[in-house]
């Protein structure tokens, strides 16, 4: 039972990391973030990225905070795998 819960949490975190990557890639295309899909992903991803942007300023017009956010999310995923033992 606990393994199943851990797998569901891990899968949800994996999907969330794909949303973050999609949000990053949308910045390369004009008006992609203004589309309904872009706004949907923005509402999901921005609350998680906001604390990282407060502490990690852009460097040479490049925002590295999503990369750090993905690394932290991956570490949390490893923690879920260790706690739930799968």
Automatic annotation (TrEMBL):
<keyword id="KW-0472">Membrane</keyword>
<keyword id="KW-1133">Transmembrane helix</keyword>
<comment type="similarity">
    <text>Belongs to the YggT family.</text>
</comment>
<keyword id="KW-0812">Transmembrane</keyword>
<feature type="transmembrane region" description="Helical">
    <location>
        <begin position="55"/>
        <end position="76"/>
    </location>
</feature>
<dbReference type="GO" id="GO:0016020">
    <property type="term" value="C:membrane"/>
</dbReference>
<dbReference type="InterPro" id="IPR003425">
    <property type="entry name" value="CCB3/YggT"/>
</dbReference>
<feature type="transmembrane region" description="Helical">
    <location>
        <begin position="12"/>
        <end position="29"/>
    </location>
</feature>
<dbReference type="Pfam" id="PF02325">
    <property type="entry name" value="CCB3_YggT"/>
</dbReference>
<protein>
    <recommendedName>
        <fullName>Cell division protein</fullName>
    </recommendedName>
</protein>
